[in-house]
Specification:
By secondary structure, the chain is α/β, with parallel strands linked by helices. It has a single domain (3-302), classed as 4-Layer Sandwich (Metallo-beta-lactamase, Chain A). It contains 10 helices and 12 strands. Strand 10 and strand 11 form a beta hairpin. The radius of gyration is 19 Å and the shape is globular. The protein binds zinc ion. Residues 66, 68, 148, 167 line the site of zinc ion.
């Protein structure tokens, strides 16, 4: 059964018994937001009953940070007034495969769900950074954050000073890079810019504990970058990666070693394709990487007041 790992007057985080996966329920005067409702049927129903009990006539919006099956598995347990996804998630060519993963999981553990398994059908699709949506006084800003998957996005709830990060900045998982290490680094580089434009202190990851201070999530960001650059150095130079220090920091190697080795394979393919280089001397290349972030700032300024 899930447990509530964080609660304040506006935010309740339900954490699944599986993989410390978080469902965040956000309550404002205007709306109830449910982010990535998940995992086991009783856990999802528990969240649904909670939402019904606090709803008091307000609209319920579902937000999906990305299309990984563990994050969409509770979709149809809710009757949402609106569903928010990235455009890339709405157009994901692997929808059927993702649904198969859910069916595989449920069948493997003899699980029955009292609701249908469907891929989220977005009413509001986020296609660029800085897009906003307002419901009364509640203002959300969306950012595209590819890297973990191609269709990841983050959401900032302005008046609560909170960012829903999806599968980034976990304290129990190093970066799981399914899509691109280049995009992953760009997303991490973009975070301070997102912060400067929105000012949030708290960040809620898809797995593990919320980061409740700026220092906490900045440290996680640095750890994520350090992991990726150490892996790049190892791949480019042939010097073995120090796995023991990875497992001193992250405590589930029996599962997570597979994700680490998948990262090595993906980043080796990227290196061989010339998608990134390793410069042993620190490195104009890193400084040059700042430029896309600056362009990003300009872009989001222009879009600041836009409602789509
Ligand atoms: Zn994920």
């Amino acid at each position: 059964m899930n447990k509530i790992i964080f609660r304040d007057p506006n935010i309740t985080i339900f954490q699944s018994a599986l993989f410390q996966t978080n469902t965040t329920v956000i309550t404002t005067e205007d709306v109830i937001l449910v982010v990535d409702p998940c995992w086991l049927p009783d856990e999802v129903l528990h969240i649904r009953h909670y939402v019904d009990s606090i709803r008091q006539g307000r609209s319920v919006f579902l937000i999906f940070t990305h299309s990984d099956y563990d994050h969409i598995i509770g979709y149809k347990a809710f009757e949402a007034d609106k569903v928010f996804v990235s455009k890339a998630m709405a157009e994901n060519p692997k929808k059927e495969e993702i649904l198969e993963q859910i069916l595989d999981f449920d069948e493997k553990y003899y699980i029955r769900r009292p609701y249908p398994i469907e891929y989220p059908n977005g009413d509001f699709t986020v296609f660029r950074d800085g897009v906003q949506y307002r419901q009364g006084q509640t203002k959300m800003t969306f950012y595209l954050t590819p890297g973990h998957t191609a269709d990841s996005m983050m959401i900032v709830i302005w008046q609560l000073g909170v960012c829903l990060a999806g599968d980034y900045l976990s304290n129990v998982e190093f970066p799981f890079i399914y899509h691109s290490s280049i995009d992953y680094v760009n997303t991490l580089e973009k975070l301070p810019v997102i912060h400067d434009r929105n000012w949030f202190t708290r960040m809620i990851p898809g797995h593990g504990d919320p980061a409740l201070t700026i220092n906490d999530w900045l440290r996680r960001r640095t750890e994520s970058l350090a992991y990726i650059f150490a892996l790049r150095e190892s791949i480019a130079t042939g010097i073995p990666f120090d796995e023991s220090s990875l497992w001193a920091r992250y405590h589930f190697p029996r599962l997570q070693q597979k994700y680490h080795l998948d990262n090595v394979a993906l980043m080796t393919r990227e290196f061989e394709a010339g998608l990134w280089e390793w410069d042993p001397e620190f490195s104009l290349q890193d400084i040059n990487n700042v430029h896309p972030v600056e362009q990003q700032t300009t872009a989001s300024k222009e879009e600041e007041t836009e409602n789509v």
